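To the wet lab folks,

You asked to see what we're planning to order before we commit. Fair enough. Below is the target structure as tokens, and below that is the sequence we designed to fit it. If anything looks off to you, flag it before the synthesis order goes out.
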């Protein structure tokens, strides 16, 4: 069962589970939208570390995309690839995070969900049962949010921030819709952190 962590609440998972260094960000939905799992790596200033392509894990920057990248371009993160219709059983898109392989320059990992459309913006409320989850290394859900309830009219939501501290990795539940409900929520997300 997932931990109930109020918006803005945080927990030091390194202290709660000392051996935990791997997480999985899962995103599922059933139909009527093209949702995307995104992770951006932030520096000391809270902005995306340069170069962007080495610090943003999303459908266009992974080994399983249409460009067939020969290796994972973001150290410590592996994106499962782009799912466009929510047809998979379980999670449609995932990003696996190994904190032992993340560069020391990275001070935080922001996990977000965006919606993409070739036409008009498609908010999370238009998707059937959209859910974002953070799992531990045993595939047990630690946190989850229902996007149609918590960010219904948005096309981008900041889900979880994993922040590196002297005591280890601290997880904060952000559940924060951002941007102007752009037809590509990734645009709003990147604008907020560049």
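Sequence we intend to order:
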């Amino acid at each position: 069962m997932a931990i109930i962590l109020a918006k803005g609440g945080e927990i030091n998972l390194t202290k709660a589970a000392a051996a935990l260094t791997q997480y999985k960000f899962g995103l599922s939905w059933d139909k009527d939208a093209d949702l995307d799992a995104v992770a951006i790596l932030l520096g000391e200033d809270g902005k995306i570390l340069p170069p962007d392509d080495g610090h943003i894990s999303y459908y266009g920057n992974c080994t399983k995309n249409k460009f067939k990248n020969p290796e994972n371009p973001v150290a410590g993160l592996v994106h499962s690839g782009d799912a466009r219709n929510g047809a998979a059983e379980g999670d449609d898109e995932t990003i696996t995070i190994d904190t032992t392989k993340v560069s020391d320059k990275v001070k935080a990992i922001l996990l977000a969900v965006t919606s993409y459309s070739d036409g008009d913006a498609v908010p999370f409320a238009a998707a059937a049962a959209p859910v974002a989850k953070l799992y531990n290394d045993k595939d047990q859900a630690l946190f989850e949010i229902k996007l149609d309830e918590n960010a219904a009219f948005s096309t981008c939501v900041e889900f979880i921030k994993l922040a590196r501290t002297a005591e280890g990795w601290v997880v904060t539940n952000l559940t924060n819709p951002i941007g102007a409900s752009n037809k590509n929520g990734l645009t709003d997300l990147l604008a907020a952190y560049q």
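Structural context that might help your review: Residues 10-193 form a domain with the Lipoxygenase-1 fold (CATH 2.60.60.30). The chain has one domain: 10-193.

Thanks,
Computational group
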